[in-house]
Amino acid sequence: MGLGKFVEVGRVIKINYGPQEGKLATIVEILNDKRVLIDGPTTGVQRQVIPIRRLTLTKFNLKGATRGARTGVITKAIKKNDPFTQYQNTIAAKKVAKKALRAKLTDFDRFRVMILRKRRSALLSTQLKALRKNNAGGKSAAQAKGGNKKK
Amino acid sequence: MPAKKRTVRIGNWYKSDDENVHFVRKRKAPRPAKLRKIVPGQVLILLAGRFQGKRVVFLKQLKSGLLLVTGPFKINGVPLKRVNSAYVIPTSTKVDVNGVNAGQVDDDYFKRTQAQRRKNEQGFWAKRGELTAEQQAAEKTRLDGKRKTQKSIDDALIAAVKKTPLLKQYLGARFSIGKTTRPHELVF
Fold it and tell me: Where is the KOW domain (chain A) (predicted)?
């Protein structure tokens, strides 16, 4: 457990709880050890005070966010360097997006996904078979022969 | 002076002891069930009966309130069938039914014929397989007519189904719930 992400002005956070669940915002001011002032003009989060308990910190920072900066200043800083789109490219964000997409699948979609997965797995297994055959001249040859004898 | 007669209303009908009156429906004609946003051409999942789990195309609502539905027969073995809308899950998948004419099918199409009720006519001890020659001929024409109607409706449907990739296989497959599926979270 090293020095990871800090609660600081400009830290991009994700809201975990409440009506704004799932949205991103930036920390604008730290009020005390439990509450911060956040703002997310481009992500639909109104400037508000929120307990730190309801947030998770991301590894991104908004450059140019100063303590107590107003929404206009924040918006300008986002225009210059947008950490929110950078966050959407992370694996964590993509997982969340995938989960949301899967929840929306209709019965027909689920059927199509099943068929496509089967096709993909069939393609993979034929490729794998071909590779195994090519490598039969190597150290796995003896094992393969031994396996065949067992049959 | 004659005493004033006290009129007591006495019913004309007294039920005898051994008469067993079953539930008598007060409303003679069935009220057609209100269709909860099911549209002709929509794919439905049947939940009960021999074809439970089968995905089926909805054609129209009949006067009795039941839904007229077909497999199509060639795809999943479900013929023209009446189905109660309570035992059905409507999915969001729709098939184009503009070319399909189900106008000639109604509740009478599904009525049992004389030949089908022959057992009751001939009595308990009569052999069940026996039909007179005329009855057999009548049965044959009746069934041929039914096959014709089925075919005419299905051919138009199958042509529409083939336009969407994998839709034919989808209709041929049954719906089932596995260990990890959460039906209340599924979007149909």
Answer: 9-39
Contacts of residue B162, Cβ cutoff 8 Å, sequence gap at least 6: B168
State the pLDDT confidence band at B175, using cuts at 50, 70 and 90: very high
| B91 closest CB neighbour out of A104, A107, A115 | A107
B70 beta partners: B57
**Out of B170, B185, B186, closest to residue A108 by CB:** B170
- CA-to-CA separations, B108 to A131, B57, B67, B113, in angstroms, rounded: 64, 21, 14, 10
Q: How do residues B29-75 score in pLDDT, each as one tens digit? A: 666 666 777 889 999 999 999 999 999 999 998 888 889 999 899 99
| CB-based contact, A112 to chain B, within 8 Å | yes
What number of H helices and E strands is found in chain B? 4, 5
**Distance set, CA B32 to CA A89, A106, B29, B58, B65 (Å):** 53, 29, 9, 16, 4
pTM over 0.80: no
Say which of B166, B185, B186 has its CB closest to residue A112: B166
Q: Among all residues of chain A, which has the CA nearest to that of B44?
A: A107
Burial class (CB in 10 A: 0-12, 13-18, 19+), A146: exposed
B124, pLDDT greater than 60 = no
Torsion of CA B17, B21, B26, B29, to 10 degrees: -150
Residue B170 and residue A104: Cβ atoms within 8 Å? no
Yes or no: say if B100 and B64 are a contact pair by the CB < 8 Å rule: no
